[in-house]
C-alpha cells in the first residue's frame, strides 16, 4: 500500500507499476487451469451470442407441427420441442438472451455501485451509515422474492408507458413485448443486484482515501469531484472487476430463474430459464428438452463462478487460498 | 444481553418495515385494480370503475382511503395475524400461509442440518490437506455446486435418478422430511449453499491451526485428532454460525424454486400461484413470511455469536 503512494510521486513509475500489477495478475490467472477452461467456455458463449443466430440451421421461431417433440436426430441434433421448433437453435439463441441481459445488468449495477460506494466511502458519516444500512438490507434478503414483487408490479405501468410512447411516436419498437420483457428484467435484476458492488467499492475507497497522494491532492486544492474520480476510483476499482465476473454469472442465474418463473423473458423468445420451464412439462417423455438448456445454463454459471474465483485469486493473492 | 438483543432488533425491524413499505407501494401503485382482479372470472362489466357495485365493493374493502392509511392498517392487522384475504378465492391469506410456512421452514432446517453435518467436516478435511488433491477436490466441488442453479440441479437429478436409473420414486408433493420423496429435494436444497459453509470452515481452521494454543496442544503430545476436535473445532464454529444468515437466505431462495419443480405446497408454490393469478395479497403475505424468516435467522445468529465467542461478550459490554 505504501508502495503505491510512493510511486504516485512520478507518473511514469505509477504507470509501470500499474501495468506490472495487471500483467502479474493475468499470469497468475493463466496458471489456474479451471479459470482458463472457464474463460474458453465463456468466450465460446460470447461467440454464439454474437454470431449464433446466423449459424443455426433453423430459425429459432420456425414451427414444424409435423415434427413435434422429436428425439435428437441427424436433422435436429437436440430434438424438437412441443411446437416442432429446433431445440439446438433455441439453445443457441438463448445464449444471446442470457449474455445481453447479464451484460446490461453488470454494467448498470457497477455504475450504481461505484456511485453509491464512492459517495458512502469518501464522505462517511450519517450518509454512509444510511447508505450501508440500505445496502446490507438489500443484500440480506433473497433477491428472488423482492424481484418477483417488482417484476409483477412494474409490468403494468411500464407497458402502459410503452403504449403511450407508441401512440405518441408511432414507432413500432414500443409495441415489442420482447423489448418490454428485456427492459423489465434488467431493471428488476439491477434493483436487487447492485448492493455487492457498492459494498466492495466502499471498503476500497475507505482504504484509498487515507493514502498520502490523496492528502497531497487535497492539499493542492483539487475539487472533491476530481479527487474522487481521478485519484480514488481508479485505485479502488480492482475488486469491482472481480465482482463483475461473479456478477455476470449470478445475473445470468437470476435472469433464468425469473424466466423460469414466468416473470422474465417470456416465450416465444428463448431464454434457458423459460426453456427449462417448458421442458419440465414433459420431462418424463422428453427429458432432452429439459436437459439441453439445463446443462448449458449450468455450464455457463459454473464457468463464471470458476472464472470469478480465479480472478479473485489473481487480483487478491493474499485472500483465502492461504 | 437484553440490551444487546434490543440493539439488534432496532437494527432489523426498521429494515423489515421499510421493505414491506416498498413492496406495498409497488403493489399499490403498480399492480392492477384489486376489485377487478377479484371478480376477473365473473361478469366483469359489473365491476368496472363507475359502476355502483364496483364502488360499493371498493368502499367496503376500504380501498378509497389514502395510501398511507391503508398501509398502516395493513401493518396493524398483520401484527394481529390478519393478512387480509386472497383476491382470487377470498380465503384468508393467514390460513394459507400457516399451512405453507411450516413446509418451507422444515425444508430449510433439514437442509441446514445436512449442510452442517456434511459441510463442516468437509471444510475441516480441506484445511487439514491444504493445497493437496483432497483440498482441491472439495473446494472445486463446492464451487461447482455453488455455480449450478437450483432449478437446473433439481430437474437434472430427477431425470437421472427417477428416469434413467429408476432408483427413486418421482418426488411429488410433501410427506415430511423423513420420506423417500424428500431425498432429492433436500439434497438439491443443501448442495448449493454448502459451498459457503465449506469455505468458511476451511479458512477458519487454517486461521486456528496457526494459533499458539494449538502448537501447545501438539507439543504436549496430544494425538492430532484430539487436538483438532478439542481445541480447533470450537473457534471454527463461530465464523460458520455467522455464515448461517447468508446460508438461510440462499436456502429460502432455493426452496422457493424447488417447491415449484417438485410441486411441494410451500411458500414458493404460493408465490408462483400468486404470480399466475396476479394475487397481490398472497404475494404480500409471502414476502412478509420470507422477510420475517430471514430476519429471525439473522437475529438468532447475532444472539448466538457472543455465546460462542466469549471475547465478543466483553467487547459488547465495553461498547454499551
Q: Tell me what the CATH architecture of chain B is.
A: Orthogonal Bundle
CATH superfamily of chain A, called what? MetI-like
Estimate nothing, just give the exact number of structural domains of chain A: 1
Query: What number is the mean pLDDT of chain B?
Result: 81
Q: What is the class of chain B in the CATH system?
A: Mainly Alpha
Give me the strand/helix succession of chain B: HHHHHHHHHHHHH
Quickly count the helices of chain A. Answer: 13
Architecture overview:
The complex is a heterodimer of chains A (about 325) and B (about 325). Chain A has a single domain, classed as MetI-like fold. Helices cover about 75% and strands about 0% of the residues of chain A. Chain A contains 13 helices and no strands. Mean pLDDT of chain B is about 80; it is low at about 315-320. Chain B has helices at about 1-30, 35-40, 50-60, 65-80, 95-130, 135-145, 150-165, 185-210, 210-220, 225-260, 265-275, 280-310, 310-320. Chain B is mainly alpha-helical.
Amino acid at each position: 500500500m505504501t508502495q503505491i503512494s510512493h510511486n504516485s510521486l512520478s507518473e511514469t513509475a505509477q504507470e509501470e507499476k500499474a501495468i506490472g500489477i495487471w500483467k502479474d495478475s493475468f499470469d497468475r490467472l493463466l496458471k489456474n487451469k479451471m479459470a482458463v477452461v472457464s474463460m474458453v467456455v465463456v468466450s465460446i458463449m460470447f461467440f454464439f451470442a454474437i454470431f449464433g443466430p446466423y449459424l443455426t440451421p433453423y430459425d429459432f421461431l420456425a414451427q414444424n407441427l409435423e415434427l413435434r417433440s422429436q428425439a435428437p436426430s441427424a436433422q435436429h441434433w437436440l430434438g424438437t420441442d412441443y411446437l416442432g421448433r429446433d431445440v439446438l437453435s433455441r439453445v443457441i439463441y438463448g445464449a444471446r438472451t442470457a449474455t445481453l441481459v447479464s451484460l446490461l445488468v453488470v454494467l448498470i449495477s457497477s455504475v450504481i455501485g461505484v456511485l453509491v460506494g464512492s459517495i458512502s466511502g469518501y464522505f462517511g458519516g450519517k450518509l454512509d451509515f444510511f447508505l450501508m444500512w440500505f445496502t446490507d438490507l438489500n443484500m440480506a434478503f433473497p433477491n428472488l422474492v423482492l424481484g418477483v414483487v417488482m417484476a409483477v408490479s412494474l409490468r403494468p405501468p411500464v407497458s402502459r408507458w410503452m403504449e403511450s410512447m407508441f401512440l405518441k411516436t408511432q414507432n413500432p419498437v414500443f409495441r415489442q413485448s420482447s423489448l418490454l420483457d428485456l427492459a423489465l428484467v434488467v431493471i428488476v435484476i439491477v434493483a436487487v443486484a447492485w448492493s455487492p458492488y457498492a459494498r466492495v467499492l466502499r471498503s476500497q475507497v475507505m482504504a484509498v482515501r487515507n493514502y498520502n497522494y490523496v492528502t497531497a491532492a487535497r492539499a493542492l486544492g483539487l475539487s472533491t469531484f476530481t479527487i474522487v474520480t481521478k485519484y480514488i476510483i481508479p485505485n479502488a476499482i480492482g475488486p469491482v472487476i472481480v465482482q463483475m465476473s461473479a456478477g455476470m454469472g449470478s445475473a445470468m442465474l437470476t435472469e433464468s430463474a425469473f424466466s423460469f418463473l414466468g416473470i422474465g423473458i417470456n416465450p416465444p423468445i428463448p431464454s434457458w430459464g423459460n426453456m427449462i420451464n417448458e421442458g419440465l412439462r414433459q420431462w418424463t417423455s422428453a427429458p432432452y428438452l429439459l436437459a439441453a438448456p439445463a446443462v448449458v445454463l449450468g455450464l455457463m454459471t459454473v464457468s463464471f463462478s470458476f472464472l470469478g474465483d480465479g480472478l479473485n485469486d489473481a487480483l487478491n493473492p493474499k485472500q483465502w487460498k492461504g | 444481553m437484553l440490551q444487546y438483543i434490543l440493539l439488534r432488533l432496532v437494527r432489523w425491524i426498521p429494515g423489515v418495515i421499510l421493505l414491506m413499505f416498498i413492496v406495498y407501494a409497488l403493489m399499490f401503485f403498480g399492480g392492477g385494480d384489486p376489485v377487478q382482479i377479484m371478480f376477473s372470472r365473473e361478469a366483469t362489466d359489473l365491476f368496472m370503475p363507475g359502476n355502483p357495485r364496483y364502488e360499493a365493493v371498493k368502499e367496503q374493502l376500504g380501498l378509497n382511503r389514502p395510501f398511507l392509511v391503508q398501509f398502516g392498517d395493513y401493518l396493524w392487522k398483520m401484527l394481529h395475524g390478519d393478512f387480509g384475504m386472497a383476491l382470487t378465492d377470498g380465503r384468508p391469506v393467514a390460513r394459507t400461509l400457516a399451512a405453507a410456512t411450516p413446509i418451507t421452514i422444515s425444508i430449510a432446517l433439514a437442509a441446514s442440518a445436512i449442510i452442517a453435518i456434511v459441510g463442516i467436516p468437509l471444510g475441516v478435511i480441506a484445511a487439514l490437506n491444504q493445497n493437496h488433491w483432497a483440498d482441491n477436490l472439495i473446494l472445486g466441488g463446492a464451487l461447482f455446486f455453488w455455480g449450478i442453479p437450483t432449478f437446473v440441479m433439481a430437474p437434472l437429478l430427477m431425470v437421472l435418478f427417477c428416469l434413467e436409473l429408476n432408483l427413486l420414486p418421482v418426488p411429488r408433493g410433501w410427506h415430511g422430511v423423513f420420506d423417500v420423496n424428500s431425498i432429492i429435494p433436500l439434497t438439491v436444497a443443501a448442495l448449493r449453499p454448502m459451498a459457503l459453509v465449506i469455505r468458511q470452515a476451511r479458512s477458519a481452521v487454517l486461521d486456528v491451526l496457526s494459533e499458539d494454543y494449538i502448537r501447545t496442544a501438539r507439543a504436549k503430545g496430544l494425538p492430532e485428532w484430539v487436538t483438532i476436535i478439542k481445541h480447533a473445532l470450537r473457534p471454527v464454529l463461530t465464523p460458520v454460525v455467522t455464515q448461517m444468515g447468508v446460508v438461510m437466505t440462499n436456502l429460502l431462495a432455493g426452496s422457493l424454486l424447488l417447491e415449484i419443480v417438485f410441486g411441494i405446497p410451500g411458500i414458493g408454490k404460493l408465490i408462483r400461484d400468486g404470480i399466475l393469478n396476479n394475487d397481490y395479497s398472497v404475494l404480500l403475505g409471502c414476502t412478509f413470511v420470507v422477510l420475517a424468516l430471514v430476519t429471525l435467522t439473522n437475529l438468532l445468529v447475532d444472539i448466538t455469536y457472543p455465546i460462542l465467542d466469549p471475547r465478543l461478550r466483553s467487547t459488547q459490554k465495553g461498547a454499551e
